[in-house]
Amino acid sequence: MMELDLLTAISPIDGRYRGKAGALASYFSEYALIKYRVQVEIEYFITLCELPLPQLKSLDHARFDSLRAIYQNFSEADAQRIKEIESVTNHDVKAVEYFIKEEFDKLGGLEEYKEFIHFGLTSQDINNTSIPLSIKEALEQVYYPLIEELIGQLNAYAEEWANIPMLAKTHGQPASPTRLGKEVMVFVYRLNRQLAALKACPITAKFGGATGNYNAHHVAYPEYDWKTFGNKFVAEKLGLEREEYTTQISNYDNLGAIFDAMKRINTIMIDMNRDFWQYISMEYFKQKIKAGEVGSSAMPHKVNPIDFEKIIPMPESLRIEAGSSTTRGLKAYKDFVSVYTFAGANADKDLCDIPEEKEKVFLNMRTDIRAEDWELGRQAFRNELQYGAPTWYEWSIKNWGTKWNAYGLDTYENEVTDSNPTLSFQTAWSAPHPILAKLAEMYPEVSFEHTWADEDIGQNCGQATYANGECTGRYYPEGSEAIIFANSVWGYDDIDEGMGEQNL
């Protein structure tokens, strides 16, 4: 069996993109869940001692620090020990309880108190506090700072570009003038509003025994107000809000609200990315900025050293929104075409020129379709018939091998010459092999070499040679060889992150 590492991981999150998502392991891995369970159990036991229960009065509170050290110093070896216990108990939370009892034995002098670990609780009292706690800390320590950093960077761009004019788009077509800074500020505004909405969502926990009623607690110690105890424990020790009325499990409503708020933030960022991709594809950004300036790679402000449009031109009709509106409209238009019939209506031209009155009849029945979506869908449908792609996005990937035109690393504007035989440029995601093949076809008398390396060093890198109008050889390094190769392309001595450079 393969050892688990970046190359053998099943999920790209734990493999290819581990470097980007690795910080989340402290909150959402199996190890993290086990650690949070231990933390909740320990803090619950300490809170019972502070109450105190009669049998716990004699426990010296000075020992609380050593008890907290069990989860504060929790290691992967500790987690592995719990998994070993679980292999016998076949119960993950029970395994945590047994592990803590072992740790009590190691500390010594706690034998008489061990049976109060997990007192009166069901497993979900631990799960439905541990998971919200992990989410709370992940949001506060990782997610919020990154979103706020993004907002700050966008706000800086909005100020920097406040007076740069641009032509806005409607349905992907030129519309009224606007300013670049204002367009960016839209996303600052949206993100700020939704981040505030996310932070306003209460992070709640279920903690009330087997049926949420503290039945076992009340039967054992009826003299205590267990609801007040639970509220205080969850709020003061975990920083959460206790759900007062539950069954055996959490209501999960507030978790749903949190995830929905995060989904809205994701949607805003997708909208932002699509807008910026369109700006780039439309070549709005031509002004130069100084090399090394912060954020210089956020959008390609440098003059393209190589222009894919001059090699494989994109039809103008494809320059429409590549987003949800087009997707909805295209689906609706295909529904229309599927039910529309007339004598000989099978040619592409016929399907492109369906009489307007036929569309009106269909739209009268489909009042759910927005006019703007329909217009985009009609054009996308025609594009598919004519070009095999609904929008610029799909066409670019199909015909260029990458979604964007090239944008440069080089600051010079001169052409390739004998004295300057190398040209460097960037692309999004993948190397533009169709472009290079077309160049070779256009200039069969020219022999050249194309080397490429993905920003994830050691991934998607290689070399291709062209001569006599065709590709004459390809080289795809693997493993450590790929890492060495990619670093040489980037000019790095050590493994580092790049930006998808293409060298020609």
- Write down the domain tally: 4
Shape: elongated
Gyration radius, to the nearest Å? 30 Å
Numbering strands along the chain, what is their spatial order in the largest sheet?
5-6-10-7-8-9
The name CATH uses for the topology of the largest domain is Fumarase C, Chain A, domain 2
Give the proportion of residues in helices. Answer: 40-55%
CATH homologous superfamily name of the largest domain?
Answer: Fumarase/aspartase (Central domain)
Structural class: alpha+beta
SSE string, helices as H and strands as E: HHHHHHHEEHEHHEHHHHHHEEHEEEHE
Total number of beta strands: 10
Judging by the overall fold, what is the CATH architecture of the largest domain? Up-down Bundle
The quaternary state of the protein chains shown equals single chain
Sheet bearing the most strands, described? 6 strands, antiparallel
What is the residue-mean pLDDT, rounded to a whole number?
A: 85
How far is the first residue's CA from the last residue's CA?
Answer: 41 Å
Task: Figure out the total of helices.
Answer: 18
What can you tell me about this protein's structure?
The chain has 504 residues and is an alpha+beta fold. It folds into four domains: 27-119, Fumarase/aspartase (N-terminal domain) (Fumarase C, Chain B, domain 1), CATH 1.10.275.10; 125-216 and 241-277, Fumarase/aspartase (Central domain) (Fumarase C, Chain A, domain 2); 320-390, no CATH class; 407-503, no CATH class. The protein has 18 helices and ten strands. The protein has helices at 18-21, 25-28, 30-50, 64-72, 76-89, 92-107, 123-160, 180-200, 215-220, 226-238, 253-281, 324-339, 348-352, 356-365, 371-387, 392-400, 433-442, 479-490; strands at residues 165-170, 173-179, 204-205, 241-242, 407-408, 424-426, 448-453, 461-467, 470-475, 501-503. A six-stranded antiparallel sheet has the order 5-6-10-7-8-9. A two-stranded antiparallel sheet has the order 1-2. Helix 5 (76-89) packs across helix 6 and helix 12 (324-339) crosses helix 15 (371-387). The longest helix has 38 residues, at 123-160. The radius of gyration is 30 Å and the shape is elongated. Residues 286-305, 410-414 and 495-504 have low confidence and may be disordered.
